[in-house]
């Protein structure tokens, strides 16, 4: 591909113009915010002083800060000065204060090149090619200045009075630094140490006071805290009490409400029941009324009707019966009359018949009586003969008994007292038994006697004796004497043989009595 | 393409090369001890040379073929030189204009006079305190001296610039 000379020439012109503009613009220099430019090389303006001398000013040495400047190559030269702050440590040892106390100080200074034209020119003259040396120079200058400052102030002022210290520093800096185009932005002490324990002693009263106040404050705070705690606890207790009271109150209310609610059910139930009962009562009333009416309609009215009907019926019956009875009576009367008539008629017939019958029976009775009289005569004869036989038998026996008695009495008379004694011996045990009967009937006996228990037998013996005496008095037979004459025992056997005679006599008497009773009465 | 055109194009290229070298190497290049301010400055020279070359070449390429020989050479170079003159003049004008362009003025001590500010460290009767001044929109801190003690916070007015870092002030507070 080939280019025509025309196109090449036009392109060349364009390129030439562009490069030209770029070259010219590239000669504009722009200073940063921390930079100051010094453009040297131009000739200063001519100035005529008041005295007529001609000189050039410094306008050829141009100072530019934070702006752009066109620098012509070759004929002009651009210099840059850094305006940044520089941190410069400053330390001095053994500086003597106003009070004569030695102290060591360490501080730091912030220093920069001044921001106005005069400072920049002065700094440029001194430090343009040795800007790194600013720190060293300044540090040494400030050390001397600081020593002078310490000499003018007391240590307390150095520590406490910032204004006084700053004033002194400014004064020193004014003379030491401003001439070099530097300004002291700030100067701060980092450390100060006095000889011995001066600084420590300075703080001790205050430390003690602070300690005391701290202790007091701590104690008061503790006290306040405790009090607050106690108050809080009290408040809590009160609140608890109120809470409990309120809870109890609420609980009581709840219980009451519960009871009420519990009662409400039954009450409502009761009310409802009552209502129901009322309704039921009404219903019952209505029912009763209805029943009453039903009764009226169904029972009473019919009953009345029945009664009426029955009464009417009874009345009718009665009347009917009356009428019937009347009819019967009349019919009966009629019938009776008829019957009477009939009876009269039949009675006459019967009388005739009966008289015939009576006649027949009279004849028959006569015959029967005769037969009976004959039979009874036969029986009487038989009984009479039987009785005569019995009487003779009894008579024979009685005679035999009487004979036996006679023989016994003869025996008694013969044997005398021996027979009585035999009788007595048979009777005596019964007498003694009877005499001792009262004593045997005694359930419990207390004997009061000088003779002791032997008195009892004595009394029995006395009773027997009294009984014998009594019988002797009554009978006249002296039984005691008879007993005392108990010598002839032979008579006793004779008394035993007379006994059957007495029995025969008794039997004969009895036979006589029996014969008398057996006589028939008819 | 004839030799004349070539020669003129090369001349123009020399001018461009000068500009490129000047741009790249900047101030290092020193083209003789000449007053570079004016028609003999590098941009002017380069513009003239380059412009003459390229414009001449343009003329040579556009001239009718009837013009030949010496006449053609004279005509082309002449057109090139004439055309390059305003280019060089433009470069000179541009340079001159940029040299005189306005920039912010640099602060001088005399600018402090009449500035207003506030005392930030009390000024004792003797010795320096500190004031903050508003100068040209900047907040600057200066050491300050006053005829009477001024407490901190007092508004002040600069009556004198003692040095680059110190001023003399008077109070402007009302109730003094």
From TrEMBL, chain A:
Transmembrane segments: 6-25
Protein name: Band 7 domain-containing protein
Localization of this protein: Membrane
InterPro entries assigned to the protein according to its UniProt record, in alphabetical order: Band_7, Band_7/SPFH_dom_sf, Flotillin_fam
MF-aspect GO terms: protease binding
UniProt keyword DNA-binding present: no
Protein family membership: Belongs to the band 7/mec-2 family. Flotillin subfamily.
UniProtKB/TrEMBL annotation, chain B:
The keyword Transmembrane helix is assigned to this record: yes
InterPro entries from the UniProt entry: NA-bd_OB-fold (IPR012340)
Membrane spanning stretches: 6-28, 40-61, 73-92
Keyword flag Membrane: yes
Protein name: NfeD-like C-terminal domain-containing protein
Organism of provenance: Nakamurella flavida
Keywords: Membrane, Transmembrane, Transmembrane helix
